[in-house]
Q: What sequence folds into this?
């Protein structure tokens, strides 16, 4: 929605096109995935796009990533195989302090995240505050979007009414001109 509003509301853009909107990725994390995921024991990341049974070849903005964290946890990785993706997924699957400490040795930038998680566990009201702020911002954005939509409709209706009024004015001007001509003809006889 933010992306749509940014592109649509940009005064520098004359014509809006959905081609100007970038892809949206839906990421679904499964802590305990169904047996379907376990049929592929060495695959924890599944990428998908929408396809149509009719054969319609239309590129949609949404793509999907399904991540089976329990499958990821079972895959042994060599020490040399470090990546940012592995770090994030390991963070999400960490179950004890020893694993967290080892992970921060491999990925020092995770330490700050673990510290923030520890603080949030001590002060859960902070989490509620963050959610309240997020909901407030979402409500504000929704309201702005709604107001912009109403303003756009008002402009459209105003433009249509102005065009109708202009047409009626032209017709009345033509009628007045015809009546003046008739009056002149009558006065001239």
A:
């Amino acid at each position: 929605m933010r992306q749509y509003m940014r592109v649509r509301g940009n005064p520098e853009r004359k014509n809006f096109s959905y081609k100007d909107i970038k892809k949206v990725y839906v990421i679904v994390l499964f802590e305990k995935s169904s047996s379907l995921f376990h049929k592929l024991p060495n695959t924890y990341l599944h990428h998908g796009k929408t396809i149509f049974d009719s054969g319609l070849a239309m590129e949609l903005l949404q793509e999907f990533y399904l991540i089976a964290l329990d499958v990821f946890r079972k895959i042994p990785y060599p020490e040399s195989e470090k990546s940012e993706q592995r770090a994030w997924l390991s963070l999400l699957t960490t179950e004890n302090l020893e694993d967290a400490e080892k992970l921060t040795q491999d990925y020092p930038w995770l330490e700050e995240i673990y510290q923030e998680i520890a603080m949030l566990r001590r002060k859960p009201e902070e989490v509620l505050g963050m959610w309240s702020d997020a909901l407030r911002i979402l409500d504000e954005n929704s309201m702005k979007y709604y107001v912009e939509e109403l303003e756009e409709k008002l402009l459209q209706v105003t433009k249509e009414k102005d065009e109708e009024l202009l047409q009626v004015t032209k017709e009345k001007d033509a009628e007045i001109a015809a009546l003046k001509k008739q009056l002149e003809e009558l006065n001239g006889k």
